[in-house]
Amino acid sequence: MATTYRAPSFDYVRPPELDGGARGSPHPVIIVGAGPVGLACAIDLTLQGVDVLVLDDNNTVSTGSRAICYAKRTLEILDRLGCGDPVVDRGIGWRIGKVFHRDRLAYQFDLLPESGHRRPAFVNLQQYHLEEAMLERLLELGRAEVRWRNRVCGISQDADGVTVRVATADGEYDLRAAYVIACDGARSAVRDFLGLEWKGQVFRDRFLIADVHMQGDFPTERWFWFDPPFHRNQSVLLHRQADDVWRIDFQLGWDADPEEEKKPENVIPRIRAMLGDDRPFELQWVSVYTFQCRRLDRFLHGRVIFAGDAAHQVSPFGARGANSGIQDADNLCWKLARVLGGKSPPSLLESYDRERVEAADENILNSTRATDFITPKSAMSRVFRDAVLDLARDHPFARRLVNSGRLSLPTSHRDSALSTPDSATFAGTMVPGAPSADAPVRYGGRPRWWLDLIGGRCELVLFAHDSAQTTVAEVREMSRQHAETARIWVVARTEADADSLGAVANAVVDADGILAQRFDAKPGTLYLLRPDQHVAARWRAWKPAAVEGALRRVYGIEDDTHDGTQSRAA
Amino acid sequence: MTLTTAPNLAQPDDFYQSLIDAHAGLDDGQSTLLNARLVLLLSNHIGDLAVLREALAIARAGVDDRSEGGLDP
Ligand SMILES: Cc1cc2nc3c(=O)[nH]c(=O)nc-3n(C[C@H](O)[C@H](O)[C@H](O)COP(=O)(O)OP(=O)(O)OC[C@H]3O[C@@H](n4cnc5c(N)ncnc54)[C@H](O)[C@@H]3O)c2cc1C
Q1: What is the pLDDT of residue A568?
Q2: Chain B hits for A393, Cβ within 8 Å
Q3: ipTM reported for the complex, 2 dp
Q4: Is the CB of residue B63 less than 8 Å away from at least one CB of chain A?
Q5: Whose CA, among A87, A131, A362, A551, lies 20 to 30 Å from B55?
Q6: Ligand 1 and A131: CB distance under 6 A
Q7: Residues in CB range of A252: below 8 A, 6 or more apart
Q8: What is the per-residue pLDDT across B25-58, written as a single tens digit (0 to 9) for each?
Q9: CA angle in degrees (0–180, nearest 5) for A542-A351-A194
Q10: Would you list the domain boundaries of chain A?
Q11: A-chain residues within 8 Å CB-CB of B36?
Q12: Model confidence band, residue A567 (pLDDT cutoffs 50, 70, 90)
């Protein structure tokens, strides 16, 4: 098949262990799998100063057509990791989604973003481009080691660490690590080695996925057809990717023969019927999938931690696979870095398990609902589905019921053990446990994005009092008490205020009050943000003991000492 | 709010006739579609999920009882 993409091929290097040249001390972290999730973990941990070793059984990036849509929160995490720009620059921004039923437009939606956010709701990009951008970033940071064509073929753990057995073309060898992050995908071998159950549901349906290269005059929109004339009784999805490549998903039904359907002589007529004319196109990739929703009971198994598809798998409707996996990495890495540094007890990792299991359940629920709408499981569910689509044309209420995949939104960990419940009233959806909103601010005399400034450590964010004097006095005292555990920010309303505060704290200017509005802040309001930018706590006024308590909670430290190594585990 | 099951229709006979008339001349498939559209329209009008769930539960219980009573499910 023709291609617009040449996959890189990375060299296998004979591991020194095979020649007796083993490393003395165990690796702090071994990451199994260099997919988007393993790479996100590797970059994040490197940024946190942790040495990582990445093992991958392959020697290139993702093959074929897999993830294409990356959601706003994922792009913000990629920004924090330092590789958001190449993804967004290369990616295709789209806003308009059209839903067709039979031969008519049922309705269209516009993801027109609220202004004052750096990143759009979604961009589309082939997974191989995403992985290349992430890999480039990892190599640029220089510290991590990636071993290609090194397949993990066994794993065992004891109280002190994990032994990883690795197979190469030249033979097998063992590695030791304090922790292993299993990012080895939906068919995770690590999961099998630990004998873990992989529970869930396989949907009785098949989908043909085709990447088509064409100079189409299709607009840059997401088109979803229910029961179109060119593919009766099934659904079709058309999405634009980079390099004039279009992704087309044809629902085939359970009885379709995957081998037959994959043959170009069967695929091409389907595409031809969809295009409705004889414009030239080239097939770049064809595969047939069945989709499933499954997850592990727990993501944390002693010193082996599961992330991404190895931990949970969803159907692609709503684009939640890579998106949620990268959010796993965002949640895990700061915690693991603290535990490795002896700053927090290992029990902090329990919060990764709880929070990301919660997120996985939310994603599985959403993608299962979309799948049930697209593939109705009974005659009556089909009747209701068609009635919804029918009504959607004229009645706005029914459009809200049409489900061809719900926008992937980050989980607000409302009941997280790391959060401190509100003691005052705040408006809006940015509750403790939710990620911080973005906003345009000025910092150091330049326009900046708020989310670009924060993260990687705890942030205390004070919205300036009306009196600069009060603010200065409070910030001085705050620095004295908390500067070791959190970075302190003041949000000022004018450049002049920021200048006068710049000597005592990091001062940003929120000239249009957008940050204050999104935080529902009043003068004197104080937020504590986690290293992954999620809200941990907030107050209408600073109380040192309350902030200390909230910080200990974020860091998973249960007693009065700050030193995690001496603390008791929860 | 709870589901009203006390009489609430001002003109019950007129309503009932309208409901039956609405199906006049339709085959079973079309009638099924009409009913589905009607359920969706009315559900949106009610809006309150707790009330809707109560209605669904009562509707479902009646059907389950009947099948236990020996009628074909
Ligand atoms: C048709 C389709 C459409 C999708 N669309 C979207 C979308 O629009 N948006 C979205 O967010 N997600 C989407 N997804 C899901 C997305 O592709 C996955 O969620 C994502 O790839 C998961 O990343 P990962 O790093 O966890 O696993 P993977 O990408 O599967 O990476 C696993 C890595 O581990 C390596 N590995 C495996 N076993 C071993 C071993 N024993 N030793 C060493 N290395 C090993 C593999 O070579 C691979 O590099 C889609 C998936 C499909 C199939």
Answers
A1: 33
A2: none
A3: 0.92
A4: no
A5: A362
A6: no
A7: A205, A206, A207, A208, A234, A261, A288
A8: 999 999 999 999 999 999 999 999 999 999 999 9
A9: 165
A10: 16-89+120-196+294-362, 440-568
A11: 380, 383-384, 386-387
A12: very low
- Ligand 1 atom 29: residue of nearest CA: A35
Give tens-digit pLDDT for A30-69. Answer: 999 999 999 999 999 999 999 999 999 999 999 899 999 9
- Determine the atom of ligand 1 nearest the C-alpha atom of A313: 19
CB A69 within 8 A of CB A319: yes
Q: Does B22 touch chain A (CB under 8 A)?
A: no
User: Is residue A55 a contact partner of residue A32, using CB atoms and an 8 Å limit?
Assistant: yes
Six-digit token string for A180 = 């292993």
Q: Percent of chain A having pLDDT more than 90?
A: 86
Residue with tokens 């400034």: A453
Amino acid at B11: Q
CB pair distance less than 8 Å for B40 and A384: yes
For residue A560, pLDDT over 70 is answered with no
- Contact between residue A542 and residue A526 where contact means Cβ atoms under 8 Å apart: yes
Q: Which residues of B fall within a CB distance of 8 Å from A383?
A: 32-33, 36
Q: Considering the domain A440-568, what is its CATH architecture?
A: 3-Layer(aba) Sandwich (3.40)
Pick the atom of ligand 1 nearest to A68's CA.
8
Q: In what order do the strands lie in the sheet with A312-313?
A: A199-202, A292-295, A312-313
Was domain A16-89+120-196+294-362 assigned CATH 3.30.2390.10?
Answer: no
Where are the extended beta strands (E) located within A169-303? 171-182, 199-202, 207-213, 222-226, 235-240, 245-251, 282-289, 292-295, 300-301
- Number of inter-chain CB pairs under 8 A, A vs B: 25
**Looking at residue A278, what is its pLDDT?**
83
